[in-house]
Amino acid sequence: MLDPALASSDSDTIAEIHIDDITVFSLHQSGVGESVSTADHLLFSNEVQAEARSGHSTPVKSLRTHNELHKELLLTHKKGLALSSRSELQQVLERRKRVQSDQVDEGQSRTPLEDVLLRRQQKQLEKEKKHGEKEQEEAQLMEFVRVRQNLRKIHSVIQNKAGNF
C-alpha cells in the first residue's frame, strides 16, 4: 500500500511515502539524486509495524526512536554529510593523487631552457653558500690574528716593564 506524494522546492525534494498508518519522509537533493537514509526509514517503519502488531513495544518507545532517527536525518542533511557520494578518506586520497599528478605534469612540462636555467640557479646558490662560509671562516681567522697580535703587544709590554725593574 504505497502512496507516494512528492513535494519539491528549488533545491531539495521531499518524498512522502504512506505505508499503512506510518508516514516515511525521504530527502533528495537536486543534482545528486541520492536519498538520505530512505532504507533506514523504511526498515524502521517495518519494525514499528511488526512491533505494533506483536504488542511488545510501547508507542512512546517507538515514537522516541522515530524522533531520534528524524533528528539524525535532519542533522546529516544540514551538515551535508550523507549527500556526498564518496567517503572523506576517498576524497582525501583523490585530492593527494590530483596534487601528485599535477606535480609530475609540472616536472615533465619543463622546456630544455628551463632545465638549463634551473641548473644555473642551483650552481649560483651553491657558490653563494660556499662564499658565505669562506667569508665567515676568514672573519674568524682575522679575529684570531687580532687577538694574537694584542697578546704579543701585551706580552712585550709586560716583559719591557719587568726588564726595567
UniProtKB/TrEMBL annotation:
Recorded GO CC terms: neuron projection; stress fiber; synapse
Location of region: Disordered: 94-113
Gene Ontology terms: biological process: actin filament bundle assembly; actin filament polymerization; regulation of actin cytoskeleton organization
InterPro entries named in the record: FAM107
Protein's UniProt keywords contain Coiled coil: yes
Pfam families, sorted: DUF1151
Keywords: Coiled coil
PANTHER family, sorted: DOWN REGULATED IN RENAL CARCINOMA 1/TU3A (PTHR16768), PROTEIN FAM107B ISOFORM X1 (PTHR16768:SF4)
Identification of the protein by name: Uncharacterized protein
